[in-house]
Write a structure and sequence with these properties.
single chain, mainly alpha, disordered N terminus
């Protein structure tokens, strides 16, 4: 990675250091990304994984908590960002092959970062998890970037519909080899079977080793989430409609998608781990409406006095996500005597010393997470002021 004036997957849609009123720029997109990443840091870094408030946990299986919105919102934002980053290249008659190669390179680096994070610090390739959050971001970035360059919005809309229907058919009608009829259970659904077949149990999510929430087959509807973001961005860029009309229709369509997702939930349940078609509609609708409202506030009416904390997260989103997963492990490599005299990792020691004695277990865990967010806010604020943005 290197310091530059743009962020990795965020691409040139970011507007961290220039006036947000520049043509083709969306302050609201950076704000939306920043809110999403700040929430991601909060839920990924509790003081104690055994004590977490329910809204800060994922749904056990079917259903959707606020935490379950974070990752689809980010993939939706990836789709929006691609449109603003690649529109000029799409219109050009030459040089698209070089753009495709840049997309491939960035996707490869993103996957490499995810793989490094999974390997660190033991670097045991025999049990490393091959799927993952950054791996899914990389794949969605790659597929959606190429689709945007090579297809128009109508084709993208039909692809989105086709993906949702096809995935529903695969998951609910195709028998699972060795298990019998199609089902949506964690270990015996078609996606889990495919992950074990293609990747092997040693390379799946370590909490189960029999299925993975970022598995191969469920990456297909995740691409649908990116396509939803691309369609939203192309709608927002329309110059033949006034801003009020664009925002109003975006909220209407987003609300309709939420309702359709809730209806579809009746036979294909909303489920983040499976990234079901109903989940794509439900979360995509919420994301579209949220971006529309932020666009109305920040870009149309210029209400920006409150946005800086989110901007500083938004312009270095991949950086803070990657480092926030790495730093706690680095800290715990430093050993100090614990309360019982046994060696304790520095992160654990800090939590046990400054949080556990002063709060109830669940509030100590929440306080630890909030302090983690505030520490990263301070670091990113300094980077923002010094115009340091990390690019893959």
């Amino acid at each position: 990675m290197q310091a530059t004036t743009q962020a990795a997957v965020q691409t040139t849609a970011s507007v961290p250091l220039v006036e947000a009123s520049q043509p083709g720029r969306l302050v609201s997109l950076d704000v939306f990304r920043g809110i999403t990443v700040m929430a991601m840091i909060l839920v990924n870094n509790p003081g104690d994984w055994g004590h977490i408030y329910a809204p800060l946990e994922h749904a056990k299986w079917n259903g959707c908590t606020p935490t379950d919105l974070i990752f689809p919102f980010f993939l939706f934002i990836v789709g929006v960002s691609l449109v603003y980053a690649l529109s000029s290249a799409k219109q050009a008659t030459q040089g698209q092959s070089q753009v495709v190669m840049r997309i491939v390179r960035r996707a490869t680096v993103l996957y490499g970062l995810g793989l490094f994070g999974a390997l660190f610090p033991s670097f045991d390739f025999s049990t490393v998890r091959l799927p993952g959050v950054l791996a899914r971001i990389a794949l969605v970035f790659l597929v959606c970037g190429i689709l945007f360059l090579k297809t128009n919005w109508r084709t993208q809309a039909w692809l989105l519909l086709g993906i949702l229907v096809t995935y529903n058919v695969l998951m609910q009608l195709v028998p699972v080899p060795g298990y019998g009829p199609a089902n949506l259970n964690p270990e015996t659904n078609l996606g889990a079977w495919l992950d074990r077949l293609m990747l092997g149990e040693n390379h799946l999510w370590k909490s189960s080793r029999t299925w993975d929430p970022e598995g191969l087959l469920s990456t297909l509807p995740a691409v649908g989430t990116g396509l939803a973001g691309m369609l939203t961005a192309q709608w927002l860029r329309r110059s033949d409609l006034d801003a009020a009309t664009r925002v109003a229709w975006l909220c209407v369509v987003g609300g309709t998608a939420v309702v359709l997702g809730m209806i579809w939930n009746g036979w294909f349940p909303i489920n983040k781990a499976l990234w079901t078609s109903s989940f794509v509609l439900y979360t995509g609708g919420l994301a579209a409406a949220s971006l529309g409202m932020l666009y109305w506030l920040c870009d149309v009416h210029g209400f920006r006095g409150w946005i800086k904390p989110f901007l500083v997260f938004g312009v270095n989103a991949i950086t803070v996500f990657f480092l926030s997963g790495l730093v706690p492990r680095l800290l715990n490599m430093i050993k100090l005597p614990g309360a019982d005299g046994t060696p304790t990792g520095l992160r654990t020691w800090l939590y046990d010393t400054f949080f556990v004695p002063y709060f109830s277990p669940i509030n100590a865990s929440l306080a630890g997470a909030i302090v983690c967010v505030l520490i990263w806010l301070g670091i990113l604020w300094v980077m923002y002021e010094k115009r340091i943005i990390i690019k893959v």
